[in-house]
Amino acid sequence: MRAAALEQRRPGAGQDADVYAALSRVIDPELDQDVVELGFVAGVEREGARVSVELRLPTYWCAPNFSWLMVSDAREALLRVPGVDEAEVTLIDHHATTEISAGVNAGRSFEQSFPDHADGELGELRTLFRRKAFLVRQGRAVASLERERLPGATISDLPETPATDAYLEVRGELGLDCSPGAPALSDAAGRPVRDVEDHLRRVRMIGVSLEGNSAMCRGLLQTRYGKVND
Amino acid sequence: MYESNGDKYFIVDGHMHNWDASPENTLNEYGEGFIKCFYDYHANLSPEEYVWPLEKYRKYGEETLMKDVFEDGYVDVAIFQPTYLTDFYKNGFNTTAQDAPLKEKYPDKFVLNTSFEPRLGKAGLDDFEAKVKKHGSKGVKLYTAEWHGESKGWKLTDDDARLYLDKCQELGVTNIHVHKGPTIWPLNKDAFDVADVDAAASEYPELNFIVEHVGLPRLEDFCWIGVQEPNVYGGLAVAMPFIHTRPTFFGKMMGELMYWLGEDRILFGSDYAIWHPKWLIEQFVAFEMPDDVPDEIGSLLTPEAKRKILGLNAAKLYDLDVPEDMQGGDTDVGPEVTEKPAVAQV
User: Fold this and answer.
1) CA nearest to B43, candidates A59, A96, A229
2) CB contact, 8 Å: B219 with chain A?
3) Could you give the ipTM of this predicted complex?
4) Which of B16, B34, B17 is closest to B25 using CA atoms?
5) Does residue A218 lie in a domain region?
6) Same-domain pairing of A18 and A116
7) Is B185 an 8 Å CB contact of chain A?
8) Position A228 in a domain
9) H or E segment to which residue B15 belongs
10) pLDDT in the model for residue A227
11) How close does chain A come to B194, measured CA to CA in Å?
């Protein structure tokens, strides 16, 4: 851990604004929230075309697979920032920090970095959690619609809200129909919902789970590192 | 026993520890990382006046434990759930052997669970049987993310795990407490997934599977298997302290648990010394559902449900004697177990 880096700049300052904007597109797959908002960015250093970022997580034992996804997504996001040629992302204070940081920065795959403990890559895991996020976002998008209207509701019936935008974004990511006439409710594979009440109960429950995990992670991060930025 | 407004509650703490994470017992950085992570859970979710200094938290000993749990904490019977972690701690973090002296000294106050290590294969079966017989254990606590040499975890559906579950059935070890953790092989899959508990619960209908921490961080997966398997239970350790910091979330979570599993299959646990049972019990009995919890689920956590959760459910699983004036009324009022849904979970 490089303690000095923790004291580095805060979001929004000068050329770091690009870097933070890029990092704010990096999502914690389990929480469906971005790493900047969550306070996972511990430090940013930029020198010309080279940028290094430190990421920190709520616990020493956060699951290595999700940790890997955030570190590797962060590196990719940084390499897309105009003017950045070289990006290094280091995960600090974590039991698998060596495997993850070294693996990601050397461009190795997950399986190459954990040869004895993985039997594939993380695409399936990522999709599973995008699907959970899809359902939760769907629940938020339809929350203000009257129940009676839901069975036949289409995308065009959704209110113009940030919740609807967020839902359509993940719908698009999953390759589902986002046209105005498409049904507003579907399962994560795009199949129509037969029993609306049952579907909404399940969506509600996943939402409760996400809410709890988010509360736990944010609380633990704060206990571990003190009050989170901004 | 806890008494409030003339009502008496029989209290079984379904999940507690007597651990040793002193510097002398800590083997490596992973052991140090483990206790510090535990400490953050404690510090984050406890009321301020209950937060200990880290040094006390590493090893608190008999006197503190007896006072906190039984004298101040209202607990009638406490269930030791061992967590071995012998790759991280010289004598283990909290083994059955470490807990045994307290059980011998206070036989009526403790239930002593043990554990098995499936990665020892057949070679470990005799030792496991000897431990069960020596301590009279009726339950095991399994931490599937525990490291063992090169292995970083295991599943209940592994062939070696089946050997031990068969043995549990043979020996009358009927309560299988399962705690999911982050490092189960293969690492590219979701290690918190409780699907293996689902499979084991179907395969071993005579055993009870108590998913610790109600499956957190996968409450949704847990509720889905709970609704399908009548022998799946949920332990509230770690979930309970949200009552203090996030009462609305706590209310919603309890509502979901009542809706999907019902009041007969949820067990109180403090996870002492992570949390002190005293404030958990006081706040739980006094808890009123926040207004923003939907009625469909918010109305289900009745006083009778609380009574069952705090002790009667665990008393049933472990054949504990409940004094007459603390016994509950109706039993088996939970929802019907349903067929597995035709559509995949997500």
Assistant:
1) A59
2) yes
3) 0.93
4) B34
5) no
6) yes
7) yes
8) no
9) strand B12-16
10) 77
11) 14
Closest CA to A22 of A100, A72, A75: A75
> Does residue A7 sit in the same domain as residue A107?
yes
A224 contact residues in B (CB cutoff 8 A): 40
pLDDT digits (tens, 9 = 90+) for B52-108: 999 999 999 999 999 999 999 999 999 999 999 999 999 999 999 999 999 999 999
CB-nearest partner of A208 from B41, B181, B256 = B256
pTM of the predicted structure, to 2 decimals: 0.94
Hey, are the CB atoms on A212 and B253 less than 8 Å from each other? yes
Same domain, A129 and A84: no
- Domain count of chain A? 2
**Which residue did the predictor score with more confidence, B197 or A4?**
B197
* Reported CATH class of domain B2-319: alpha beta
Interface probe for B, chosen from A57, A126, A208, A214 (most Cβ of B below 10 Å), is A208
- Same domain for A116 and A127, yes or no, is no
- Side by side, which strands form the sheet with B139-143? B139-143, B175-179, B208-211, B232-235, B266-267
Distance of CA A190 to the CA centre of its chain: 21
Same domain for A140 and A73: no
A229 pLDDT band (50/70/90 cuts)? low
- At B325-343, the pLDDT tens digits run 998 766 566 676 665 544 4
* Same-domain status, A56 and A164: no
CATH number at residue A59: 3.30.300.130
Residue finishing a domain among A120, A139, A158 = A120
Contact B242 A212 (CB under 8 A): yes
The answer to whether residues A105 and A148 belong to one domain is no
- All residues of chain A having their beta carbon less than 8 Å from the beta carbon of residue B29 are 95
Cα–Cα distance for residue pair B176/B183, rounded to 1 Å: 20
Retrieve residue B34's tokens: 């483990």
Does the residue A9 lie in any domain? yes
A89 and A55 both lie in a single domain: yes
Q: Quick: pLDDT tens for A52-111.
A: 999 999 999 999 999 999 999 999 999 999 999 999 999 999 999 999 999 999 999 999
Q: What pLDDT is stored for residue A47 in this prediction?
A: 93
Q: Judge whether A191 is closer than 8 Å to chain B, CB to CB.
A: yes
Judged by CB atoms closer than 8 Å, whether chains meet at B192 and A63 is answered as yes
Does A104 fall in a domain? yes
Q: What mean pLDDT comes out for the span B37-65?
A: 97
Following DSSP, what letter does each residue of B267-296 receive, concatenated?
A: E----BTSS-HHHHHHHHHH----TTS-HH
Domain ranges for chain B? 2-319
One-letter amino acid at B289 equals M
Q: Of A96, A120, A144, which residue constitutes the final position of a domain?
A: A120
Cβ–Cβ of A219/B191 closer than 8 Å? Answer: no
Please indicate whether, in this complex, the C-beta atoms of A215 and B183 are within 8 angstroms of each other. no
Range of the domain at A30: 3-120
